[in-house]
Write a structure and sequence with these properties.
mainly beta, Immunoglobulin-like, Proaerolysin, Chain A, domain 3, 6-stranded antiparallel beta sheet, 1 helix, 23 strands
Length: about 325
């Protein structure tokens, strides 16, 4: 019975000493962040971390998946770039960032005892996991940042708008050149639109990095304008593929031209009239996780022959 009581007292003393020791370790630690783990949704966001003091620095930032130090840009507190495409570290106040097209982060230290960690939307299709390594003398602590992969978006609608710089413009394009050497005059029937790259070409452009990421694997056909008259857009059900690459469609002109070839050597070519149409668009996508709308803005550009042409002879 006495041995049992003694054992319980010993275990209690041991645990008490351990707890006191751990408490003392925390109190002795120079680096005391308010959290050492940030978990964020794919849509990105901002988290501020507070410290009991400012006697520490960012030693590096490393990719947790590959254990490789991340490179990016380093700025002073005044916004001056100190280093570009360099291993990330920050001795004092300032900013570091690593931004790619499909993910990235910005870390700002505005005060000695705080960090503001901002993540952009993660559109890679994979989790984004990195570690901010803090150092004070020989002491090292890590803040783990984990961003989930996106659940994606689905197409909702597209709206076309005429802005000041939009509209139709005309230009000419040289078509196929024909060379002949005949003993007597003869007639030749040819297409004024023969040759390569003679078709309607549709292209969607946007300065937004993720303009085409979310529906990249889907064949989204959208109705496009077919005419602009008195600053009004007309539609008749004609569709084009929305995506980062241009799509082509037949120009639709089947007319043939009959040309009289003179005796001897001759050279002629067709000069084609083309139209360039530019219209602004707003694409509406719906987030599959949150149900919130995402708007992507850009330009739709189509080039197409008008059907008018002329024949030019070379001397």
């Amino acid at each position: 019975m006495k041995n049992s009581i003694f054992s319980k007292i010993f275990v209690g003393l041991f645990l008490s000493i351990g707890l006191v020791s751990c408490s003392n370790d925390d109190e002795m630690s120079t680096i005391q962040p308010s959290t050492s783990l940030i978990e964020m949704e794919a849509e990105g966001g901002e988290t501020e971390i507070y410290f009991s003091n400012g006697d520490w620095q960012i030693a590096k930032v490393r990719n947790q998946n590959s254990n490789i130090a991340i490179q990016g840009n380093i700025y002073s507190q005044e916004g001056e770039m100190l280093k570009e495409n360099s291993m990330l570290s920050l001795e004092d106040q300032g900013k570091i960032e690593a931004l790619w097209d499909s993910k990235g982060f910005t870390i700002i230290r505005d005060t000695p005892s705080s960090l503001d960690i901002m993540l952009k939307e993660n559109s890679t299709g994979e989790e984004f996991h990195f570690i901010v390594v803090l150092k004070s003398g020989e002491e090292v602590k890590e803040i783990e940042v984990f961003q989930k992969k996106s659940q994606g978006y689905h197409f909702n609608s597209i709206e076309f708008i005429l802005e000041e710089e939009d509209g139709d413009s005309l230009f000419v394009k040289k078509g196929t050149t024909y060379r002949h050497s005949v003993s007597e005059s003869q007639e030749l029937t040819v297409s004024p639109y023969g040759g390569i790259d003679v078709h309607k070409q549709s292209l969607f452009l946007s300065s937004e990095k993720d303009a085409f990421v979310w529906i990249e694997n889907d064949s989204i056909m959208v109705e496009v304008p077919t005419d602009i008259n008195n600053n009004e857009l007309s539609f008749d059900g004609e569709q084009r593929l929305y995506g980062r690459y241009s799509s082509i469609n037949p120009h639709g002109f089947e007319e043939m031209a009959t040309v009289t070839i003179p005796a001897g050597q001759s050279v002629f070519f067709f000069e084609q009239e083309w139209r360039k149409r530019q219209v602004s668009y707003k694409l509406s996508l719906i987030n599959n996780r949150t149900g919130e709308e995402k708007i992507i803005e850009g330009k739709w550009i189509e080039t197409a022959p008008t059907g008018r042409y002329s024949i030019h002879w070379e001397d």
